[in-house]
Amino acid sequence: MENLFSLEGKYIAVTGGTRGIGKAISTRLALGGASVLANYVRDVNAAKELETLAGDQGISIELCRADITTRKGQDRLMTAIEKSGKKVSSFVHCAATGVHRPIDELTTRHFDWTFSLNVRAFFQLVIRLIPKFSNPASIVAISSSGAVRAARTYSLVGATKGALESLSRHLALELAPKGVRVNILSPGAVLTDSWEALPDRENRLSERIRRSPLGRLTTPEEVAWAAQFLCSDASCGINGHTLVVDNGERIVE
């Protein structure tokens, strides 16, 4: 019987693909049989660790260092894709940034920076990738609960995630005739380096664990399995939707 969850023969680009959730997704997709292009910009050590992991496990992960908020960086990523000589089966946007401050301490510079990576870069890359997608193909945008829930000092990041989800739904409508599905993957609380930026980190993590019916945080691997599903042919009937992977946290009052 055909394994619809297999990614054999697929070529997948992952932004923010060398750390945290992005690293887990890049690894899982490659383990599923895909050739993965993992983009990063700053953390060279994390990129080298992923490269070593790929070598040890015999999986296909290529690295591309590029600041995708800039035209030059986007050009570099597109060049790496073109050099592969392959059509893009999936594009997973994990790259994200944010400024965690009270609203009266935020500036338009903070606003522009957060939106430039979390939303604008995604939009620009999707537009450039349209002629390079295979048919069928899949786009996965990584969101968060902040897209629909409010949290202190999370206003800018939450706003970008809301915009990312809305944009993804509109792209799902317009790209469907081209054979490209677009979905959103919204993880629960996953303990990554990004939590270090939150001023009340411990209290928030404790509250997330308390709310979870399973009594624990979501793991990067759980998110990565869902990403594999959305990139696989097994999800061919899913388009324009948000898949929540949070151990049930959001169903609890």
Question: Can you walk me through this structure?
Answer:
This protein is α/β, with parallel strands linked by helices. The chain has one domain (11-248): NAD(P)-binding Rossmann-like Domain (Rossmann fold), CATH 3.40.50.720. Helices cover 42% and strands 17% of the residues. The protein has helices spanning 20-31, 44-57, 71-84, 108-129, 155-175, 201-211, 220-231, and strands spanning 11-15, 35-40, 61-65, 88-93, 133-142, 180-187, 242-245. The chain has a seven-stranded parallel β-sheet with strand order 3-2-1-4-5-6-7, sandwiched between helices. The chain starts with 10 loop residues before the first strand and ends in an 8-residue tail after the last strand. The model has no long low-confidence stretch (mean pLDDT 94).
Keyword list:
alpha/beta; Rossmann fold; 7 helices; seven-stranded parallel sheet; 253 residues
CATH architecture: 3-Layer(aba) Sandwich
Low-confidence stretches: none
Strand content: 15-25%
What is the makeup of the main sheet? 7 strands, parallel
Our measurement of the CA-to-CA distance between the termini, rounded to an integer number of angstroms, reads 43 Å
Fraction of residues in H or I helices? 40-55%
CATH superfamily: NAD(P)-binding Rossmann-like Domain
DSSP strand tally:
7
Strand order in the sheet with the most strands: 3-2-1-4-5-6-7
Per the CATH scheme, the topology name is Rossmann fold
> What are the secondary-structure elements, in order, as H or E?
EHEHEHEHEHEHHE
Count of helical regions = 7
Shape annotation: globular
Q: Mean pLDDT score, rounded?
A: 94
Class inferred from helices and paired strands: alpha/beta
What is the count of distinct domains? 1
Rg value? 17 Å
- The CATH class name reads Alpha Beta
